[in-house]
Amino acid sequence: MKRQIPIEEVKSVRSGPLIAAATLIGIGMGGFVDGIVLHQILQWHQMISAKLPPDTLLNKETNMFWDGIFHAFTWLTTALGIYLLWRVVYERKSVLSNRIFGGSLLLGFGIFNIVEGIIDHHILVLHNVREISSNQSAWNFGFLGISLVMLAAGWLLVQKGRREALPGHQ
């Protein structure tokens, strides 16, 4: 029978630096997946395509510029996460755990999607997940639903990793 681990013990595991680093990397990677897959490969939307439809060369160039600004943000976020991860490993600031790392990546990816989805799709209406669709709202809310699943899965993995990192855990 597994022993129940009090939450106080789980909180005492020094996993914060690893969680912070991997979450930032997850945010950046979420941005890259969105930008590369949805903006460039599938071309479902661009950064401001709901405000400025890419139906002329000038509009397409303007959208591409803002996609570039978006990619610069995702690159900087990923670079900061890698820097923090290097500090975790080099300075031995935290327990190292595949579950905590993977769960935090999912947390970051989900956080990116939730924030980007709420702000860009619902509040500012800069673009929709799929601009050319008879039901843009379904795509936008589906995107948020998938993001909530990523958040939950990431949180569960992090908690499992923190429990496994406890001294005496078998």
Describe, in plain words, how this protein is organized in 3D.
- The chain has 170 residues and is an all-alpha fold.
- The chain has one domain.
- Helix content is 71%, strand content 0%.
- It has five helices and no strands.
- The chain has helices spanning 7-12, 16-41, 57-90, 98-123, 136-164.
- Helix 2 (16-41) runs antiparallel to helix 3, helix 2 packs across helix 4 (98-123) and helix 4 (98-123) runs antiparallel to helix 5.
- The radius of gyration is 19 Å and the shape is elongated.
- The chain starts with 6 loop residues before the first helix and ends in a 6-residue tail after the last helix.
- The model has no long low-confidence stretch (mean pLDDT 92).
**Uncertain runs with pLDDT below 50, 5 residues or more?**
none
Structural class: mainly alpha
**SS field, number of helical segments:** 5
The largest sheet, given as strand count, sense and whether it forms a barrel, is: none
Roughly what fraction of the amino acids lie in strands? under 5%
Number of domain units: 1
Rg from Cα: 19 Å
Instruction: State the distance separating the first and last CA atoms.
Output: 12 Å
What's the multimeric state?
Answer: single chain
Dominant shape: elongated
Helix coverage percent: over 70%
Overall pLDDT metric: 92
Number of DSSP strands? 0
String of helices and strands: HHHHH
